Amino acid sequence: DAKTTQPTSMDCAEGRAANLPCNHSTISGNEYVYWYRQIHSQGPQYIIHGLKNNETNEMASLIITEDRKSSTLILPHATLRDTAVYYCIVARGGSNYKLTFGKGTLLTVNP
Amino acid sequence: NAGVTQTPKFQVLKTGQSMTLQCAQDMNHEYMSWYRQDPGMGLRLIHYSVGAGITDQGEVPNGYNVSRSTTEDFPLRLLSAAPSQTSVYFCASSYSTGTSPLHFGNGTRLTVT
Predict the structure, then answer these.
(1) How many helical (H) and strand (E) elements, i.e. helices and strands, does chain A have?
(2) Residue of A110, A109, A105 whose CA lies nearest to A36
(3) Is B28 within 8 Å of A77 (Cβ atoms)?
(4) What is the CB-side half-sphere exposure of residue A69 using CA atoms within 13 A?
């Protein structure tokens, strides 16, 4: 599976949009981009995933560049409860059960 | 709907002791996995199962055994605990369809002295 690169940490003001970048320059055509988050040592929580089109759900939006070498997770109105470690993962379809979690980005939402 | 349930939440073992970490899911998921997480690290895959009776090794399988006799349960066994196995253990499950999300339990915090 392709490797991902994320910033170690980011800050965001409460109520503002949080934009979390992820580089995956070696991504293959059949690999999806997944985002999970982990709040204070709880089990990770699925956020969103995509292949090449932008995706949106009730939690977030995922913007994937046209060349698929990078993506951005957008939390439109960050709250204090969004403070968490966010993981960007690239994996082939059908291998969703054995995802590789890196160190992720610690997002701190400040009041 | 309980989701993925892990027991116990906390456990302290002495070196050489054995124990089983329990994981159960009530979502009829085919896939189940065990991960461990050490301080400041991401999650590392220990073992996984794509269905009852089928298991395979992940990234860090040494020192751990698993079995999958039912769809619902996927216990993780430590036969002879070592201090290096001090960690937080997460169980996860998902449907088998391509990109279905992983559902995680809340973890078991294990300390081996």
Answers:
(1) 0, 9
(2) A105
(3) no
(4) 3
Burial class (CB in 10 A: 0-12, 13-18, 19+), B32: buried
- Separation between Cα atoms, residue B2 and residue B107, nearest integer Å: 14
- Six token digits for residue B2: 């309980």
Tokens matching residue A9:
């940490």
- Mean pLDDT per segment of 10 residues, for chain A of length 111 residues? 90 97 93 94 93 94 96 97 96 83 94 95
DSSP 3-state of A39: coil
B104 touches chain A (CB under 8 A): yes
Tokens 């996984």 sit on residue: B48
Residue A98 has which token pair?
Answer: 């054995």
Residue A42 DSSP code: S
What is the β-pairing status of strands A45-50 and A105-110?
Answer: unpaired
The predicted-structure confidence for A71-100, as pLDDT tens digits, reads as follows 999 999 999 999 999 999 999 877 877 888
B9: its two tokens: 């939440």
Å from A38 to nearest chain B CA? 10
Backbone phi, psi, residue B30, to 5°:
-75, -40
Two tokens, residue B18 = 């054995």
Inter-chain touch A96–B98, beta carbons under 8 Å: yes
Q: Tell me the β-bridge partners of A75.
A: A18
- The amino acid present at B69, given as its one-letter code, is S
Q: How far is A13 from chain B (nearest CA, A)?
A: 24
Nearest CA in chain A to B88: A41
* Residue A41 CA: distances (Å) to CA of A7, A91, B15: 19, 23, 25
